[in-house]
Amino acid sequence: MFFLGHMAWAYIWAMMLAGKLRGKLFIHTVLMFGVVPDVDILLQGFGVVHHTFTHSLFFWLVMFAPFFAVFGRKLIPYFVAVAQHFVFEDFLVGKVMMFWPFSLSYFGFHITMPSILDVALEIAGLLLAAAVAYFSGDLKRLLSLDTQNSLMFLPFLALVTSMLFYAVDWPIIPLIAYVGSSHLLATLVWAHIVLTIFLAVSTAQGLRNLFKPRDRN
Fold it and tell me: Which domain holds residue 14?
């Protein structure tokens, strides 16, 4: 899936398991954790293969273990944000080495990306995430003058970077070359624009509060 879907579904699944932490989650962290398994794309120049060890449950259990020891159950929503990336999304759309290093087999349905199912999951995730954010109060919080919202720049940067990467570096034909002739791609582009604008506004609100003049009295 694209970063759009990974971020949207990371938020949805994290909220489902947040419990008493609802309204207190670091949303910027949840969104970044939703895409962090794809760091292997940046490591391909070092011989790392996409959808291998960074898409393994064991790998992330080991990575999170010390933090679970310190923070306990509070870390569950963040771990879920990472795990759903390949247990749910990439499993449905692609194939991942989910049980590395115990098994080097790939698991998943390996559906073409972008496809009707892929786009449907991306758009459904965005709409459902927006509804959850609205009814939970997170939408209001993320659009408020809150310094913490300046950290929404991180998922904003990740999303924009991924858009540029896929637009010009897609295998065989860059996506930008035929986006105008594909309703699926056009839909994805508009959905990405919507999420990008939201992240930009949230970031701007955080920066406004960070740099606004303080009353010295």
Answer: 3-211
Q: How far apart are CA 164 and CA 172, in angstroms?
A: 16
Report the number of distinct structural domains present in the chain.
1
216 assigned to some structural domain: no
Q: Rounded distance, CA 154 to CA 33, Å?
A: 11
Per-residue pLDDT of the chain (217 residues; tens, 9 = 90+): 889 999 999 999 999 999 888 888 999 999 999 999 999 988 888 889 989 999 999 999 999 999 999 999 999 999 999 999 999 989 998 899 999 999 999 999 887 767 888 889 999 999 999 999 999 999 999 999 999 999 999 999 999 998 887 766 655 445 565 566 678 778 888 899 999 999 999 999 999 998 887 765 5
Model pTM? Answer: 0.91
- Side-chain half-sphere CA neighbours of 209 within 13 A: 15
